[in-house]
């Protein structure tokens, strides 16, 4: 009969109207600034750099400026310059580490490819800025976050990383001890088992940083 | 020469009638010609109401009833007339009265 | 003759809140003070004026009260509509606009104020190439005609702004002009979407004016009057002493109410008949090129029209301001009217939240192939009902049965014809 | 303009110079046909898509789709970046269905490199693909009804359920829509038992939601009147235009890559392929609803049979990946149709040629054929029923 | 009360005259609607309430819609503008004829002695009107009904058949 389908539809909407007052399943809005969803541990949005010593956030960065992430980054939003001493010898730490998070697409590939567990994904998402260029171009100082912060964001993952690093350290210490004893073996590279990092070769074609025009 | 309300009404109606007449005669757009004729019909209706209102026997509702009938007929006229206009338009792609000289399409 | 005298000649039966109503005598002596409250207040305000000015003052008061009451109802309705729509869609609806300076949210009650401020401060844009005069006149005309229709609805016992002998006719005459304004808006905007909307508005009006009027004829037939006050009075009796004799509780009244309801959804451009402003097809239809205050006027007029049609439906079929049960008569009549009006408006919103939109050819087909025949058959049924008014005893149920059959049969047949070729389908699966 | 009765001479009395452009508009208004440009900014074009519609009254006599507003060089970007770096870009193709895009791309690369995939990963991929199908079809039903003129109600119900799936994606992959989850030789992360339990819970509740949604929509006379018989697509035209996915099956052609190719572990599951008979908008809608019900069955079986084991092939190499020279085409049955990636390797870290076969784009090509003779209102819902995502159409 | 009448008359005639002179058909139609509304106001002034509302309903509500529809459906080409030389003579002729008719009418009206004006507005309720319609005028009512029905059918047939018979209509 004409109209039965319409009545059925009206019944559904009426059920939802009433349900929105007593059934949390039918009232799903989170009123955002007051109430925030609990982020899952895996949540990612923009990368940050992990440092181990809160007293020296820049000096204790795990990053060795190997530029793997810079090469692999799909939108090429990472810009790294290795720090060098006066003689031009690489110091294995970044002098410049910039991430333009207005270009970053939160793909996490930098995290995956980093052999030193130095770059991790942040979860801080309230990053709206009125300044399109300077405000979203994060430098080494802004990117550097403590390991404790990393633990806070991704506890499981961070624990695994810490265990791995501790294991490596132990191995390194053992290697050092072994080296001290026979003093013949070459030093083992401090790297995870899977992929030894290719030699950091800052080529001439390294992507230019997204130079912001002067405001 | 005195002008009572009845005369005023009649003058009003004559003026309206002439406006309709001039429009119907001068325009070549069929729709406007029809509208001019409508206007003349309306002017005639004005007379009926005026005579009913100021006439000797307002209790008899004849004037009002005549106007009601006239409005009904005018509606019919408008409906058929405009249907004709659309038919003409579909046939000759314009609504100029001068060119609608054939009854057979 | 003084100015008010001239005006009263122009509208001989206009009487301002029913002072010279033919029904003035029916106000029961036992009426409570609450029931008389509006009249008492008006008496306090205008009682001291000379007689010829009193009429003018009363009319002005009626106009001001009507506009203020419905403007505030409009503000509340916009909020209520969004709240209901929100709740149906499992969200809270607007609830954040705070009261100015207090920072109190009060469930979004300040939202209409915020909307109003926004509307008033927006730039008024008239497109290049638009017909400026018509573009300007359209919202004003629409609002004016919508307000006119509000004048003849009896809001309570003796509470009618314009108690005409032919008020039902007046209502439809004024209501018919609203689509003209929609057309003006659409055509004057010089926008193709608006033009399409204007065409749709015209087609819709022509189609739905007829069932709307035809569905009212039975009521006029049974009440024997075109006056809304009389129609409400006639529904004031009781079956068996306690069941209300509203027209909707008869077979022909129910059918007439449904036809009227559907047609009034179309007349007020409400979903599922909101084709002139179909946002998914025509952006905003005739409103596309309107902004700021003009847009607000359109919005307001739309709600006024909706209120007027709902008020008319209440008056014609739902017993107007009559209480549903005899012992509830102590509640003032205007409150009953307000309750029924709000309930009907709620149904309008509920429907808007539930249904998609029809297509223009389906819309006209529904009118011509379903509503008009049904209304005509309903007219015949009403004639039967009126002829068998003296059937009593066992004949009474028979009368009900015959009348119900006369409605239900054609309803089923017409419905089947209308939905020919449509229906749920069964699907096969690949082997 | 397009008017056949274009005026040959201008009346002498018209003012000549001021507002010449206004008179041009005037001509538009007085032709027999009305040319309306729907889009690129239009509520119902699902993004920046434009239809130049020529109308006779409300009937469409010509429809010219214009796209490319969202073109961003996807395929050339794929040739400039490494194989792995293309993976997050595939998320952005059909941004509703990143999981299936990822899978199709992963299959192409795995074919190219001869990479094996662990069984657990195959199951997880099926689970994610079917969740994506639920997500996509739910959204589509909501959008389609929104196009028909519902004031948001079905859309909101659809989004309510979609959010649950997105929550699952977020807790698994870290992102709601840009999942970037598949890797060559498996998946990036192993789903936890809690996550699987949450999926199970969602799957159990989804049938209830579908019932309620269908009660609101499928039997609704207005929906049937609007969608039945509009935008009819014949099987012959659909096949010759290369239409795939639910749109093809709605015409009655039995072609589902899950059955035809039997990729992944699909042959192990029992499911049916619903087929339409009319090829109209209602069929396209209903086929998707029925496919969702089948997806629920697949999900139940996959969750039941999910084996233990590694999620990523230990020998898999994602970074510094250099396949041997060769070519490969990997395709899967995405929610919108056949999504495929064609790759040519020259042995370098970047593909020599990277090509996407986007279902939205191919399905969109027959829009005009379906819309001719229908009204504007129909064009909107026909476009809605094709189920396009402009990110994939324009690439 | 003559001032009200004068204002109404002036408004109505002016609106009609401008409407007839307008080049833009939509403006013409809308001005004519205003003029019809003026006539309705005149009926109200004269105390014929029912006729006034009927006039509004039929003219403002219905006929105006049909006219606008006709205007929109027959999107006029520029040939329809009345500015060609051959029409000038006709306009002059029409003005002359109209003026002549007007002169005769005005002379006739002014030449007649005014009748006595009834003091009060005649009261005519809807009930009386209805009784009169169904009583002495029932036959004419039936005839009008038949005319309307035939006109409706004729209009539908005319407008519908024209659409099918035109092969050029198909794009």
Largest sheet of chain B: none
Helix percentage of chain B: over 70%
DSSP strand tally of chain E? 0
Structural class of the helices, strands and pairings of chain B? mainly alpha
Report how far apart the termini of chain B are.
Answer: 56 Å
Instruction: Work out the strand percent of chain E.
Output: under 5%
Largest sheet of chain E: none
Number of domains of chain E: 1
The secondary-structure class of chain E comes to: mainly alpha
What is the succession of H and E elements of chain B?
A: HHH
Q: List the total number of helices of chain B.
A: 3
The percent range for helix content of chain E is over 70%
Principal-axis shape of chain E equals: globular
Overall shape of chain B: it is elongated
List the helices and strands and how they pair.
The complex is a heteropentamer of chains A (215), B (105), C (431), D (395) and E (171).
Chain B: H1 5-26, H2 30-54, H3 62-92
Helix pairs in contact in B: 1-2, 2-3
Chain C: H1 3-10, H2 33-46, H3 51-88, H4 111-121, H5 132-150, H6 167-176, H7 178-188, H8 192-223, H9 228-234, E1 238-239, E2 243-244, H10 251-267, H11 279-282, H12 292-317, H13 333-354, H14 360-387, H15 395-418, E3 428-429
Helix pairs in contact in C: 1-3, 3-12, 3-13, 4-12, 5-6, 5-7, 5-12, 7-8, 8-10, 8-14, 10-12, 10-14, 12-13, 14-15
Chain D: H1 20-30, E1 34-38, E2 50-56, E3 59-66, H2 74-80, H3 83-91, H4 98-113, H5 119-148, H6 153-173, E4 182-183, E5 186-187, H7 193-217, H8 221-227, H9 235-240, H10 246-250, H11 257-260, E6 274-275, H12 281-305, E7 326-334, E8 337-345, E9 351-357, H13 359-364, H14 367-371, H15 376-386, H16 390-394
Antiparallel strand pairs in D: 1-2, 2-3, 4-5, 7-8, 8-9
Structure, explained:
The complex is a heteropentamer of chains A (215), B (105), C (431), D (395) and E (171). Chain A is α+β, with helices and mostly antiparallel strands and 215 residues long. Chain A has helices at 4-22, 68-72, 109-113, 140-143, 147-153, 155-180; strands at residues 47-51, 78-84, 90-100, 119-121, 137-138, 144-146. In chain A, the strands form 2 sheets. Chain A has a 3-stranded mixed β-sheet with strand order 4-1-6. In chain A, strands 2-3-5 form a 3-stranded antiparallel β-sheet. Chain C is globular. Chain C has helices at residues 3-10, 33-46, 51-88, 111-121, 132-150, 167-176, 178-188, 192-223, 228-234, 251-267, 279-282, 292-317, 333-354, 360-387, 395-418; strands spanning 238-239, 243-244, 428-429. Chain C has a two-stranded antiparallel ribbon with strand order 1-2. Helices cover 63% and strands 1% of the residues of chain C. By secondary structure, chain D is α+β, with helices and mostly antiparallel strands. Chain D has one domain (74-357): Cytochrome-c3 Hydrogenase, chain B (Orthogonal Bundle). Helices cover 49% and strands 13% of the residues of chain D. A 3-stranded antiparallel β-sheet of chain D has the order 1-2-3. A 3-stranded antiparallel β-sheet of chain D has the order 7-8-9. A two-stranded antiparallel ribbon of chain D has the order 4-5. The longest helix of chain D is centred in the middle third of the chain and has 30 residues, at 119-148. The two termini of chain D are 33 Å apart. Chain E is mainly α and 171 residues long. Chain E is 77% helix and 0% strand. Chain E has helices at residues 2-21, 25-46, 49-73, 85-111, 126-134, 138-165. In chain E, helix 1 (2-21) packs antiparallel against helix 2 and helix 2 packs antiparallel against helix 3 (49-73). Classes of the chains: A alpha+beta (215), B mainly alpha (105), C mainly alpha (431), D alpha+beta (395), E mainly alpha (171). At the B-E interface, helix 1, helix 2 and helix 3 of B face helix 1, helix 2, helix 3, helix 4 and helix 5 of E.
């Amino acid at each position: 009969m004409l109209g039965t389908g319409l009545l059925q539809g009206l019944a559904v909407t009426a059920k939802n109207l009433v349900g929105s007052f007593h059934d949390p399943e039918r009232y799903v809005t989170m009123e955002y600034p007051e109430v925030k969803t609990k982020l899952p541990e895996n949540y990612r949005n923009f990368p940050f750099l992990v440092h181990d010593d809160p007293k020296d956030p820049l000096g204790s960065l795990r990053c060795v400026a190997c530029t793997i992430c810079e090469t692999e980054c799909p939108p090429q939003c990472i810009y790294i310059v290795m720090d060098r001493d006066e003689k031009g010898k690489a110091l294995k730490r970044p002098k410049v580490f910039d991430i333009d998070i207005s270009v970053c697409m939160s793909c996490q590939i930098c995290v995956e490819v980093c052999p030193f567990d130095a770059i991790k994904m942040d979860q801080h998402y309230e990053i709206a800025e009125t300044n399109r260029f300077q405000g979203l171009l994060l430098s080494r100082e802004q990117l550097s976050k403590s390991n404790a912060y990393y633990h806070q964001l991704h506890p499981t993952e961070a624990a695994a990383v810490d265990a791995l690093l501790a294991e490596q350290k132990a191995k390194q210490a053992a290697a050092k001890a072994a080296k001290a004893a026979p003093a013949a073996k070459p030093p083992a590279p401090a790297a995870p088992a899977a992929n030894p990092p290719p030699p950091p070769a800052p080529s001439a074609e390294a992507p230019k940083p997204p130079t912001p025009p002067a405001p | 020469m005195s002008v009572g309300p009845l005369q005023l009404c009649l003058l009003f109606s004559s003026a309206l009638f002439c406006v309709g007449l001039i429009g119907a005669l001068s325009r070549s757009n069929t729709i406007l010609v029809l509208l001019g004729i409508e206007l003349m019909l309306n002017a005639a209706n004005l007379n009926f109401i005026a005579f009913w209102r100021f006439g000797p026997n307002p209790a008899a509702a004849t004037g009002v009833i005549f106007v009601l009938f006239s409005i009904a007929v005018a509606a019919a006229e408008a409906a058929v007339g405009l249907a004709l206009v659309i038919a003409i338009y579909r046939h000759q792609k314009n609504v100029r009265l001068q060119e609608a000289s054939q009854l057979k399409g | 003759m003084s100015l008010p005298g001239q005006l009263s000649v122009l509208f001989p039966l206009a009487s301002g809140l029913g002072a010279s109503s033919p029904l003035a005598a029916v106000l029961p002596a036992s009426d409570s003070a609450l029931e008389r409250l509006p009249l008492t207040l008006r008496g306090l305000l205008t009682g001291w004026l000379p007689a010829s000015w009193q009429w003018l003052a009363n009319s002005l008061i009626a106009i001001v009260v009507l506009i203020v009451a419905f403007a505030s109802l409009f503000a509340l309705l916009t909020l209520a509509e969004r709240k209901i729509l929100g709740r149906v869609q499992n969200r809270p609806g607007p609830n954040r606009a705070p009261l100015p300076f207090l920072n109190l949210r009060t469930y979004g009650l300040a939202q209409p104020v915020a909307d109003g401020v926004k509307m008033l401060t927006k730039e008024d844009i008239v497109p290049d190439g638009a017909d400026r005069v018509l573009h300007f006149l359209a919202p004003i005309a629409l609002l004016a005609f919508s307000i006119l229709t509000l004048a003849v609805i009896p809001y309570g016992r003796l509470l009618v702004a314009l108690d005409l002998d032919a008020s039902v006719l007046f209502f439809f005459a004024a209501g018919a002009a609203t689509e003209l304004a929609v057309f003006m808006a659409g055509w004057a905007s010089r926008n193709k979407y608006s033009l399409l909307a204007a065409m749709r508005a015209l087609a819709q009006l022509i189609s739905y004016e007829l069932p709307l009027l035809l569905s009212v004829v039975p009521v006029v037939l049974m009440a024997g009057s075109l006056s809304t006050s009389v129609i409400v009075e006639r529904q004031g009796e009781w079956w068996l002493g306690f069941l209300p004799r509203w027209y909707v509780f008869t077979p022909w009244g129910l059918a007439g109410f449904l036809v009227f309801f559907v047609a009034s959804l179309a007349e007020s451009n409400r979903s599922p008949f909101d084709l002139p402003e179909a946002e998914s097809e025509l952006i905003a239809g005739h409103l596309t090129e309107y902004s700021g205050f003009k847009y607000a006027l359109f919005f307001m007029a739309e709600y006024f029209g909706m209120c007027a049609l709902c008020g008319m439906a209440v008056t014609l079929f739902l017993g107007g301001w009559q209480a549903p049960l005899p012992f509830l008569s102590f509640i003032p009549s205007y409150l009953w009217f307000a309750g029924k009006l709000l309930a009907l408006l709620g149904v309008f919103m509920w429907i808007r939240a539930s249904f998609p939109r029809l297509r223009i050819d389906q819309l006209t087909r529904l009118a011509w192939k379903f509503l008009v025949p049904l209304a005509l058959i309903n007219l015949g049924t009403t004639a039967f009902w009126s002829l068998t008014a003296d059937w009593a005893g066992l004949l009474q149920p028979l009368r009900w049965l015959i009348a119900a059959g006369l409605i239900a049969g054609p309803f089923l047949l017409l419905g089947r014809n209308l939905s020919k070729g449509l229906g749920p389908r069964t699907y096969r699966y690949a082997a | 303009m397009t008017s056949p009765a274009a005026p040959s001479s201008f009346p002498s009395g018209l003012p000549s110079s001021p507002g010449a452009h206004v008179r041009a508009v005037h001509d538009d208004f007085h032709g027999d046909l009305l040319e309306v440009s729907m889009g690129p900014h239009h509520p119902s074009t699902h993004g920046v898509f434009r239809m130049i519609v020529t109308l006779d009254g409300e009937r469409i006599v010509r429809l010219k789709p214009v796209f490319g507003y969202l073109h961003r060089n996807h395929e050339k970007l794929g040739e400039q970046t490494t194989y792995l770096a293309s993976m997050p870009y595939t998320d952005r193709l059909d941004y509703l269905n990143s999981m299936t895009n990822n899978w199709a791309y992963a299959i192409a690369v795995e074919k190219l490199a001869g990479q094996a995939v662990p069984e657990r990963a195959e199951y997880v991929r099926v689970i994610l693909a079917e969740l994506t199908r639920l997500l996509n079809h739910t959204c589509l039903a909501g959008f389609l009804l929104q196009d028909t003129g519902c004031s948001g109600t079905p859309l909101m119900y659809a989004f309510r359920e979609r959010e649950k799936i997105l929550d699952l994606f977020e807790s698994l992959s870290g992102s709601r829509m840009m999942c970037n989850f598949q890797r060559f030789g498996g998946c990036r992360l192993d789903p936890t038992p809690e996550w699987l339990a949450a999926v199970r819970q969602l799957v159990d509740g989804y049938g209830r939601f579908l019932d309620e949604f269908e009660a609101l929509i499928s039997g609704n006379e207005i929906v049937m009147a609007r969608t039945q018989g509009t935008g009819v697509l014949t099987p012959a035209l659909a096949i010759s235009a290369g239409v795939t996915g639910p749109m093809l099956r709605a015409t009655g052609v039995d072609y589902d890559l899950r059955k035809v190719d039997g990729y992944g572990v699909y042959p192990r599951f029992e499911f049916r392929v619903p087929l339409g008979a009319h090829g109209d908008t209602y069929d396209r809608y209903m086929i998707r609803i029925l496919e969702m019900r089948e997806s629920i069955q697949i999900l139940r079986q996959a969750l039941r049979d999910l084996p233990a084991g590694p999620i990523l092939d230990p020998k898999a190499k994602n970074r510094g990946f250099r396949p041997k020279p060769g070519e490969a085409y990997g395709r899967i049955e995405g929610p919108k149709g056949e999504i495929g990636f064609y790759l040519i390797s020259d042995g370098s870290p970047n593909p020599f040629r990277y090509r996407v076969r986007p279902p939205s784009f191919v399905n969109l090509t027959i829009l005009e054929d379906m819309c001719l003779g229908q009204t504007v209102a129909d064009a909107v819902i026909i476009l809605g029923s094709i189920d396009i995502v402009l990110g994939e159409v324009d690439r | 009360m003559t001032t009200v009448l004068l204002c109404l008359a002036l408004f109505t005639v002016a609106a009609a005259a401008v409407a007839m002179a307008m080049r833009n058909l939509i403006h013409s139609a809308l001005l004519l609607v205003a003029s019809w509304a003026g006539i309705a106001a005149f009926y109200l002034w004269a105390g014929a309430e029912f006729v006034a509302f009927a006039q509004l309903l039929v003219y403002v509500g219905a006929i105006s819609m049909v006219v606008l529809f006709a205007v929109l459906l027959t999107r006029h080409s520029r040939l329809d503008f009345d500015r060609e030389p051959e029409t000038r003579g006709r306009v002059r002729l029409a003005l002359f004829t109209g003026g002549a008719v007007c002169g005769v009418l005005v002379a006739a009206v002014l030449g007649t002695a005014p009748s006595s004006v009834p003091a009060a507005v005649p009261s005519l309720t809807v009930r009386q009107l209805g009784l009169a319609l169904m009583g002495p005028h029932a036959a004419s009512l039936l005839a009008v009904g038949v005319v309307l029905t035939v006109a409706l059918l004729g209009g539908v047939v005319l407008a519908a058949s024209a659409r099918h018979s035109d092969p050029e209509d198909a794009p």
